[in-house]
Structures are given as C-alpha cells and as structure tokens.
Amino acid sequence: MAHKKTLIHLARWVLPGSRPMIEDGGIAVERGHIIALGDKRDLLGLFVSKDMDIVDHGDAVLLPSLVNVHCHLEFSFAKDLIPTGLGFAKWLRRAMELKQQWIGNKNEAVKRAAIQALKEVVARGINTLGDVGNGSFGALAIDSLGKDVFCALNFREIIHPLPHDLNLPRLPDLPYGPCRKNTYSPHAVYTCSPDALRKIKDWCRGHGLPFSIHCSESMEEAELVRTARGPLADILAERGRKVDEFFRPARSSVELLHAVGALDPSTICVHCVHVDDRDVRLLSERGCYVCLCPRSNEFIGSGTAPVSRLFSAPGIKVCIGTDSLASNQDLSLFKEMKKLMDMAPDIHPEDIFRAATINGASALGLSGVVGCLEPGALSSFLVLEEGPPSQKEIFAHVCSWPEQSRLIHVRPFQGTDKTKRG
C-alpha cells in the first residue's frame, strides 16, 4: 500500500458536533478518515515526527458536512413546475400529474435532473442524504458520485393501502459498508394499511435500519386520519382505493403509528406540522426522531410545525430535511437552519446546528461515520472561510451562513472542493 501523508487542517474555530468547540484547533486526516483532533499546539506536537502537510485556514470555522435526512431526488425534474401556496391536496394532485407525465416517458431527463440536484446538494455542504423514492433515480444519481465520497440511505418508498399481505420489492445489493444502505419507507399512514406499516417496521427493526415516514404533514392528512374523509380520501378513491377497506380513524397520525407499534428510537417522523401536545408527549416518550422541513411546508402552504415545542421536548431528537425540488426552491440545509432560527428565536443555534449534523447522522444510523469531527469518522467537513465576530456568536454565524459566501467542502478521497455561492 502506498504511503499516505498525514494532512492537518487548522482553523480559528473547530466545531466537532459531538464535543465542545475548540478554539485555535484542527483535525488530522489520513486515507479519507479523521485520525485526531484538538488544540493546534497539541495536534502538531502529536505528528511532529511524521510526514505531514498542513493547511491553515486562518480565521475560519471547521464543521462536519451537513446531513439532509429527508429528500426526494427523483422529483428534481419538477423544479419550478409547481406554484407555491397551493395547499397540500392541490400540490399533491399537481405532483402526481407531473410524475405521470415524466416518469416512464422522460427517464433520461429525470435522471439528469436528479444528478444535477445532487451536485447542488454537495456544493451546498451536504455529504449525507436520506433519499426517498419509488424508483431508482435517486440511487442512480447517488451512485454517480462514487461509493466512497457520498453517504446515503436509499429509502424505497412503499404505497400499499390494501388490506392483504404485502410483498416488499427486492432491494438492490449495495455492498458499500457503513456509508451506503438500502431500506424501505412507508409513505404515510393514509397510503399504507396497518399490516403494511407493521411489516415494514418489523423489516427495518430486524435489519437495524431506521423507519422513516411522512407524519402529520397537512390539515388534509389530519382530517383523513380523524374522519376517513376529505380531499385525500377523494384522491385515494379516484385511484381505486376504498378508504374504508384499509383504514380506521384515529385521533392523530402519531397515535395511529403508536397503535401499530411503529414508534421507537429508530423511527423518523418527517414534518410533524400538525401535532398537538399529546402527540409531542408520545413522540418524546418513545424517543423518536422528528425531521423538520420548514421551507417545504411553507412552499406548499401546509402549515407551520411547533418548532420550539419539538426542540424542547425531552426524548425527541430533531433533525432536518429539505424535501424535494417539487416543494422547495433549492436543497440548501443552511437555508433550512436559518429558517428554523427565524421561526424559533428561543432555540439555541447550537441545537439547530446539531440537528443538521450529529442528530441527522444518528437518525440515519451513521453515528461516528458522518455528522461529526471525531477519530474514525470520514474526513467530510466544511470550511467557512469567514469566522464569527466572537465565540458567543459562532453557532448563530454557522446557522445563518449566507449562500453568497465562500464555502470549502472537503470530502473523503476527493481533496478540497471550493465553491462560491452566488
């Protein structure tokens, strides 16, 4: 094996995510992994006798690459094709129309759009994705980046509102180790029968993989769950699905998931816009993840999640997603962090930073691999070249990072990618 130099990155500020910030520190990297971090003097002393290169980023901030827990790359073709503020039912009808027009008829264009969107994802500092799709477009886009440089869980979305047994489709083999895995994800409680929810949860639990589901996203969902009627029931009926055959009303989507045994510390409830105190208490007691996608909810007009309540609830671990370009202007997690800061000024920016890094990695079962700067983790990190005015403002500085500022994205085995947003 060829000898590899130790590469040491130094900066005024280092935010490991998993431990307190380090002032005037750095990280040491070999063969695509972090091997040490700490104070500048101690770090350089540790490797003084080794063959090393030093990159001093000056008055910059080093932080882990961001983790986008919920995205639909396969819908990237729909960018700018759906107006904002339709409300969920009208948005869903338009998204379904576009999918029918494009998927199967313009597959190459769909694939190209997914690849282009993923390039934007990387340029915006994201190196780990929970991608949800009915087909293979997202997985093909992720494969185009290479198995060693981008981490992902590919969630095969299941829609099965039928009262009989479900045969899960075969997942493609991805022998990529801890960084890339395939799993299943039920779409929502109103598009999957209770038996389907149980079977998918049992499969995920048996394979040690997260269970992710759209939950309490819209008022239309809340109406269907409570009454088995409303605009979403109409859409299902138009597609030949008789709601009364597979669905029984419940107080909320959260309680329905609890009733089928789907809530536990490996469950990711995505959106959670229309949850009340009883729902939040149940999610907290069961130790679930909640993935917030605030700009998607605003784009659609589906409501505003109780951000402060969710962040402050003991037991709930908040992470962040962007959803798709069918329901968002872009896939920037920095903009999602800024949106959450604006929505909940009482939440400390450090908690929002952790939601976009270490919590996201934990939600996807990738703790210690990504989302942190720790020995053994992939050398996937960001350099924000302009540091904060003071230590007190560092997390607010990161969470409100302007897109036009310079961002360096260092990825494993790929050297340094410099991008300037403009």
In short:
The chain is built from 16 helices and 16 strands. By secondary structure, the protein is of the alpha/beta class.
Give the helix/strand layout.
Elements (H helix, E strand, L loop, with lengths): L5 E9 L7 E9 L2 E7 H7 L5 E5 L4 E4 L1 E6 L16 H15 L4 H17 L2 E8 L3 H7 L7 E8 L21 E7 L7 H13 L4 E5 L3 H9 L3 H8 L4 H4 L6 H7 L7 E5 L5 H10 L2 E4 L1 H7 L6 H6 L4 E4 L12 H11 L5 H7 L2 H6 L17 E4 L9 H6 L6 E5 L5 E5 L2
Helix pairs in contact: 3-4
What would your notes on this structure say?
With 422 residues, the chain is α/β, with parallel strands linked by helices. The chain folds into 2 domains: 6-65 and 372-420, Urease, subunit C, domain 1 (Roll); 66-363, TIM Barrel (Alpha-Beta Barrel), CATH 3.20.20.140. Helix content is 33%, strand content 23%. The chain has helices at residues 40-46, 88-102, 107-123, 137-143, 194-206, 219-227, 231-238, 243-246, 253-259, 277-286, 294-300, 307-312, 333-343, 349-355, 358-363, 394-399; strands at 6-14, 22-30, 33-39, 52-56, 61-64, 66-71, 126-133, 151-158, 180-186, 211-215, 267-271, 289-292, 317-320, 381-384, 406-410, 416-420. Strands 1, 2, 3, 4, 5, 14, 15 and 16 form an 8-stranded mixed sheet that branches. A 4-stranded parallel sheet has the order 6-7-8-9. Strands 10-11-12-13 form a 4-stranded parallel sheet. Strand 2 and strand 3 (33-39) form a beta hairpin. The protein is globular and about 70 Å long. Residues 415-422 have low confidence and may be disordered.
